[in-house]
Amino acid sequence: MLADPDTWPDPQPTPSDWRCRWRLLRNRILANPRFQKWAAKTPLVRRIASQKAVELHHLTAGFVYTQTLTAVIQSNLLAVLQGRIETTKSVAAMCGLTTQAAFTLLTAARALKLTDEVSPGHWMVGELGASVLGNPAVADMVRHHAVLYRDLADPLAVLRHREKTGLRNYWSYVPGGTHPEESHREYSRLMSSSLALIADHILDSYPLTNYQSLIDVAGGTGQFTRLVQQRYPELSTTVLDLPEVVSEAKTLQIQHKTRFIATDMFQSPLPENTELFSLIRVLHDHDDEPVKHLLARLYDALRPGGHLLIAEPMAGTAGAAPIGDTYFSFYLWAMGSGRPRTAEELQAMCLAAGFTRVREFKTPIPALTRLLVAEK
User: Fold this and answer.
1) Residue of 221, 297, 212 lying closest to 256 (CA atoms)
2) 3-state SS, residue 153
3) 139: which residues sit within 8 A by CB, 6+ positions away?
4) Ranges for all domains in the chain classified under CATH 3.40.50.150
5) How far lies 97's CA from each of 81, 94, 125, 180, 290, in Å?
6) 363 neighbors 201 (Cβ within 8 angstroms)
């Protein structure tokens, strides 16, 4: 989190710093219309200018790209094309569109690698479309984003009035929301499906061979512990979560050996002398003070030599800054709770809570999740 500008020393960082001088000069040059015209015509820099123009256009058109994906999901287009080649006319009939509308969607999706035109008027699933089909959680997340997009229709209002967003009502643990019953069910479905994207990455990066028990804090309906038990059937697993979530898990009649305990992780007593706690995509959903309080409570409940496993997308991830620093910053702000943190921030918070060592274990796709293990 940035420091409060009111606390910055006087003078603040000034153009006297050579890096600031260079960036100010760069910005003056790039903003100059005469330079822009010259760059567009000069062979040595024209390619760079063209690339920058495309990047800028992506920023202005990004919402259209996401809505194209939404239309692909809502029309069931990828399922229509899965495993076969169809004509524009047949796609139109199966998706409930006119031929011209189907052509518009197919060509828009082609540019995003969701579809491929193998010959004029004949279509199949594209490279990214195949990835969407292989990860049902992507479609679930796209449907869920309708809530976020309604809020972001006026992003400045979201920044000014965080307490009035529709997304705040979606998550059952966010203070101040209305949390209708349907949102609990949608929340459980979304968490279960999206966990499949990262659970294998976590378990591949940090095997649980040497543990006898795991307590998954805020573990929802037990999707992570279910995947843990597939690999480690002798491992005892417990899920702690809010009463309404535990009730949902029991309604689903999940058939595995996980024990579910209705718990408020910030206030209820935690199981003592615990060997291993896990927090899977939990900390970034909460503000700093609750996170500090929770880490201290978990530290106290661990046995000496016990571990805390933290897995979530993090800010400052190389090659994925827009995911942690842009997407999650705005999402969590609109949600009304939490913020993305860097691995260094989380490590410092763990050490402040009493943990003696915090290690990061490399995951296959850090953009989706990074992994820290803190030791008592």
Assistant:
1) 221
2) coil
3) 73, 132
4) 195-375
5) 15, 8, 18, 34, 49
6) yes
Nearest to 298 by CA among 242, 353, 372: 353
The residues of the chain that CATH labels 1.10.10.10 are 34-133
Mean pLDDT value of segment 213-224: 93
Q: Which helix (H) or strand (E) is 305 found in, with range?
A: strand 302-312
| Calpha distance 324→283 (Å, rounded) | 13
274-280 and 302-312 as β-strands: parallel, antiparallel, unpaired? parallel
Lowest mean pLDDT among 46-50, 99-103, 246-250, 357-361: 46-50
Measure CA 205 to chain center: 19
Per-residue three-class SS string for 81-102: HCCCCEEHHHHHHHHCCCHHHH
Separation CA 184–CA 180 (nearest Å): 7
Which amino acid makes up residue 321? A
**pLDDT tens-place string over residues 53-100:** 777 877 888 899 999 999 999 999 999 999 999 999 999 999 999 999
What gap in Å lies between CA 129 and CA 245, rounded to an integer? 32
CATH class of 195-375: alpha beta
**pLDDT band for position 185 (50/70/90)?**
low
Counting residues of the chain whose pLDDT is more than 70, the rounded percentage is: 87
Question: What is the average pLDDT across 23-41?
Answer: 75
Asked: is 34-133 a CATH 1.10.10.10 domain? The reply is yes
Per-residue pLDDT of 110-143, as tens digits, reads: 999 999 999 999 999 999 999 999 888 888 888 8
Token pair 């571990």 is found at: 307
Q: What is the pTM for the complete model shown?
A: 0.81
Report how far residue 2's alpha carbon sits from residue 346's, in angstroms, rounded to the nearest whole number.
15
- Are 313 and 324 a contacting pair, CB within 8 Å? yes
Longest dimension (CA), the chain: 70
**How far is residue 67's CA from residue 129's CA, in Å, rounded to a whole number?**
15
| First-last CA distance in the chain | 26
* Distance in angstroms (rounded) separating the CA atoms of residues 297 and 284: 17
